[in-house]
Write a structure and sequence with these properties.
single chain; 841 residues; alpha/beta; D-amino Acid Aminotransferase, Chain A, domain 1; eight-stranded parallel barrel; binds phosphoenolpyruvate; binds magnesium ion; PEP_util_CS; transferase; kinase; metal ion binding; pyruvate
């Protein structure tokens, strides 16, 4: 391969250097040079040159050395296209030899020169000649003896004298760095960070500014913001008589930068260099349009800027930094929005396991609801409530959860289940109330009746033992892991406001209770897109009435029980309407199979018989009568609405009466009533007739008028296909992609967690379809449904309210398909608002 002129280039303001040809570091150094900052002379080697070097074709290094001034020491640093992709470690002090050491001793003193030489021999031996670091363990203390020792080890192990020619040293350093980039581990590591298989490596060869010797000499790093909060704060360290990033590893001798009560500072030691450095960083911020960290060296009082890298930051700092840059007019608001990965907002909304802490992982499952919490293991909803009453944090551990567990879930700090996937009960509720949750942890043995868990490595955990649930990563950790608090500040609110200014698809929240609704408002959702009303029946005092209704022998008995539920539901809806003020609220009529409200074991049946004053046999017979082989495909949703119409009649009456009640208080609401699990147009016809008739009755009984909208939840493939028949009867269609995914794949949403990771690992599914909308199959049903609905009823409102509503890729699909809004759990609303905004930028 021929080395072209542009492949080895002295960095000057006009040199042809690109991030795609020479890497990000080379490009950044060129920008610094353009700003006239004191960057030492630097040569950039292109990706192509480094590739050729790895293949054994070394360019003319004498020419390269003469570009840099023949007597200088050099360092070589990696310059990959994206600094996150890593690269081999930098090698400093190339050019140190016996002769150079003697010459330098004249200038900086013999001790400092010997230290530099020793440092180079060590790093060359380990990183270039690949000697075992252990061989240098018994190094004598005196620097001269240590140097002699290191040179001898080199000779013994390589059977060659330590190379004295700088060109030879440089060639070996370049070769070893070029080859390290091609190693399998390095390749896998960078691919895991998103690098393409053919990602290139550039190298920069820079004249060293020596941080050792006479006058004030040393090195350090500096940035203008705090990496954890993003707050404006000069951060970094400086260490006299040091090189590279020594100041960060030697906490003892390192100085603060700015004057600081905690100890001596660079500002006091070298005020001019400090002021110069600070102004360089402000200039970099403005011209590079980014918060940068500078690596600098002071050599005999003179400042050199060796490198600039983007400040490392967590999500919270990323938001503050982006907002501050836009507020200062350095970047546009749109750019600020584009700089934040929507999912990263989860870090601001939930507590997290400290990413720097070590983790004792017991097992992994599905990361079903983000955030982390530590608590004592409890195995039942009752135990969870008792623990909460004692003020103890507990983790509710169940094989799977059911609606009965809701109060236990509210009382717990986290939930762990053996079964389930992204849309199983625990996952949906967990996300809804912001509770960290790991489901489908089937590698753990759940022995809930014996009240213990056995981890895959054999460790046994009993009730009361502490575990930490990391719902962000899907990990179950032993004991108490260090957690970082959630925290969002003004910058977050400002960024969200900008997102709303550009966004062109609305974001509503799935909210079932007044608490959820408040959360939805806090996160600025544009109304409620799905209120799952059945959750209201598990509140204290209601379950019993609900059960009486289920056991009612006759229609009047059933009506009597429903009559008692009516005021409770009316209050529920009135509360929701008041909290949401004039925002839309979409209420889904009762959806689950009735058996979910009944106990499942014999003891429970007995207790129920006692409570309802019925013979045990009546209870067991009724439970048996309600049991189904496949309840999710059975008597639920609109099927129940048609066969037991009194439930829906009670609910719509409660909705209408609540509408009238809050209207009297000045809250104008047009409730949206949604029919679940529809598969035939006639179902809609029947329910619509009843809803209209209840409305007429309420109007005539109260003498008050009100408006409402009726809609259908498209959750069965047939409803999507027949959307053309259904649409003309209603005002809106909302795609319930949880059930629609379940039914399109024929895949149980409650059991899929067991094999989902195998399926994804083996490439059967590209991703969990309950998490990311399946664009090839399920989304095609959405497109067909939307198209047929619009053809038949052009003004119809279209939306999605399955869990996919909070997923950025799925939102992109909904926006492209012209949907009016997406609806997702309250805690996912900010993520959805930002993702939607990015699509519109
Ligand atoms: C759905 O099926 O997508 C849905 C939102 O309803 P649920 O999760 O309550 O079944
Ligand atoms: Mg559903």
């Amino acid at each position: 391969m021929q080395h072209r002129d542009t492949d080895i280039t002295l960095i000057t303001p006009g040199a042809p250097i690109g991030a795609h040809t020479h890497g990000g570091r080379a490009k950044c150094l060129q920008r610094l040079a353009r700003l006239n900052l004191p960057v030492p002379p630097t040569v950039a080697l292109s990706f192509r040159t480094v590739q050729a070097i790895a293949a054994g074709d070394m360019p003319d290094l004498r020419a390269l050395l003469s570009m840099l001034g023949d007597t200088a020491l050099l360092c070589v640093r990696p310059s990959s296209e994206d600094s996150d992709w890593g690269g081999p470690r930098a090698v400093l002090n190339i050019g140190m030899s016996d002769a150079m050491c003697a010459a330098l001793a004249e200038r900086i003193g013999s001790a400092a020169a010997t230290r530099l030489y020793l440092r180079f021999v060590e790093s060359y031996s380990i990183h270039v000649a690949r000697l075992d670091p252990d061989m240098l363990d018994d190094m004598p203390h005196a620097p001269e003896d240590a140097l002699a020792f290191a040179l001898r080890v080199y000779l013994d192990e390589t059977e060659e004298e330590f190379p004295q020619d700088p060109a030879v040293q440089l060639a070996e350093v370049l070769r070893s760095m070029a080859r390290a980039w091609d190693g399998t581990t390095a390749r896998l590591l960078r691919q895991a960070k998103g690098a393409p298989a053919d990602a290139g490596l550039g190298l920069v060869v820079q004249e060293m500014a020596i941080g050792l010797g006479n006058g004030e000499s040393g090195s350090g790093v500096m940035q203008l913001v705090n990496s954890k909060s993003g707050a404006r704060q000069i951060t970094g360290r400086y260490l006299s008589q040091s090189q590279g990033r020594d100041a960060l590893s030697d906490a003892k001798g390192a100085l603060y930068l700015e004057r600081d009560a905690r100890g001596p500072s660079l500002e006091e030691l070298a005020p001019d260099a400090f002021a110069e450095l600070k102004s360089h960083l402000f200039l970099m911020r403005e011209k590079l349009r980014e918060e940068m960290q500078a690596e600098f060296t002071i050599e005999n009082g003179k400042l050199h800027l060796l490198d600039g890298v983007r400040v490392a930051r967590n999500a919270r700092a990323a938001v503050s930094i982006a907002v501050a840059l836009a507020e200062d007019g350095i970047i546009t608001r749109e750019e600020a929005l584009m700089r934040i990965e929507p999912r990263a907002l989860n870090e601001l909304l939930h507590r997290q396991v400290d990413p720097e802490a070590s983790r004792d992982v017991l097992a992994r499952g599905v990361a079903a609801s983000p955030g982390a919490a530590t608590g004592k293991i409890v195995f039942s909803a009752e135990a969870s409530q008792s623990a909460a009453a004692r003020g103890e944090a507990c983790v509710l551990v169940r094989r799977e959860t059911s609606p009965e567990d809701i109060r236990g879930m509210h009382a717990a700090v986290a939930v762990l289940t053996e079964r389930g996937g992204m849309t199983s009960h625990a996952a949906v509720i967990g996300r809804g109330i912001g509770l960290p949750c790991v489901v489908g942890a089937s590698s753990i043995r759940f022995q809930t009746s014996a009240r213990k868990l056995t981890a895959p490595d054999g460790r046994v955990l009993k009730e009361g033992d502490q575990i930490t649930i990391d719902g962000t990563n899907g990990e179950v950790l032993f004991g108490q892991a260090p957690l970082l608090d959630a925290g969002h500040d003004d910058s977050f609110q400002v960024l969200m406001g900008w997102a709303d200014d550009v966004r062109d698809i609305a974001v509503r929240a799935n909210a079932d209770t007044p608490m959820d609704a408040k959360m939805a408002r806090n996160f600025n959702a544009h109304g409620i897109g799905l209120c799952r009303t059945e959750h209201m029946f598990f509140e204290e005092g209601r379950l019993r009435v609900m059960r009486e209704m289920i056991f009612a022998g006759s229609s009047p008995d059933r009506a009597a029980a429903l009559e008692r539920l009516l005021p409770m539901q009316r209050d529920d809806f009135a509360d929701l309407f008041r909290i949401m003020q004039d925002q839309p609220v979409c209420i889904r009529l009762f959806d689950p199979p009735l058996h979910e409200f009944l106990p499942s074991d014999r003891a429970g049946h007995r207790a129920l018989a006692e409570a309802l004053d019925l013979p045990l046999s009546t209870v067991t017979r009724r439970v048996e009568a309600l049991s189904e082989y496949n309840p999710m495909l059975g008597m639920r949703g609109v099927r129940l609405g048609i066969t037991v119409p009194e439930i829906y009649e009670m609910q719509v009456r409660a909705i209408f009466e609540a509408t009238i009640k809050v209207a009297g208080e000045g809250v104008q609401i047009v409730p949206e009533i949604m029919i679940p699990l529809v598969s035939a147009s006639r179902e809609v016809e029947l329910v619509k007739a009843r809803v209209d008739s209840v409305a007429a009755t309420v109007r005539s009984q109260t003498g008050q008028d009100f408006a409402y909208l009726l809609g259908v939840m498209v959750e069965t493939p047939r409803a999507a296909l027949r959307a053309g028949d259904i649409a003309p009867q209603v005002s809106f269609l909302s795609f319930g992609t949880n059930d629609l995914t379940q039914m399109t794949y024929g895949l149980s949403r409650d059991d899929a967690g067991r094999f989902m990771s195998d399926y994804v690992k083996q490439g059967v599914y590209p991703e969990d379809p309950f998490h990311t909308l399946d664009l090839d199959g399920v989304a095609e049903l959405l497109s067909i449904g939307a198209e047929r609905a619009r053809e038949a009823s052009p003004g119809i409102t279209l939306s999605i309210c399955g869990e996919h509503g909070g997923n950025p890729e799925s939102i992109a699909f909904c926006r492209a398909a012209g949907f009016d809004y997406v609806s997702c759990s309250p805690f996912r609303v900010p993520v959805a608002r930002l993702a939607a905004a990015q699509l519109a930028v």
